[in-house]
Amino acid sequence: MKDINEIIKKCTDGDREAWEELVQTYIKFIFKIINNKLALSHAFYMQQDVPDIAQEALESLIEDNFKRLKSFNGDCQFSTWLAVVVGRFTINYLK
Predict the structure, then answer these.
(1) Which residue, 5, 33, 38, 90, has fewest beta-carbon neighbours within 10 Å?
(2) Which residue pairs from 54-58 have beta carbons closer than 8 angstroms and sit at least 24 positions apart in sequence?
(3) What pTM was computed for the model?
């Protein structure tokens, strides 16, 4: 995989291939975070809900001209940042 900062820059510049690369690289990780948050919350959910939550979490990264994705400033690993963002999104989704 290329440098994550380079991929993020390309994504925020509108490069669809970079976005697809980012999604394909992290989609299993995103599913894992969602499943873990749902299990910890003891929420009733169906396994088929997880892809919907993942899709909405990904869409939240690109809303308002990639506002949330642009907020990644590189002061931690991208996976750590993404876990926090997706975890918070999942908690809010449950509310």
Answers:
(1) 5
(2) 54/27, 54/30, 54/86, 56/89, 56/93, 57/30, 57/85, 57/86, 57/89, 57/90, 57/93, 58/23, 58/30
(3) 0.88
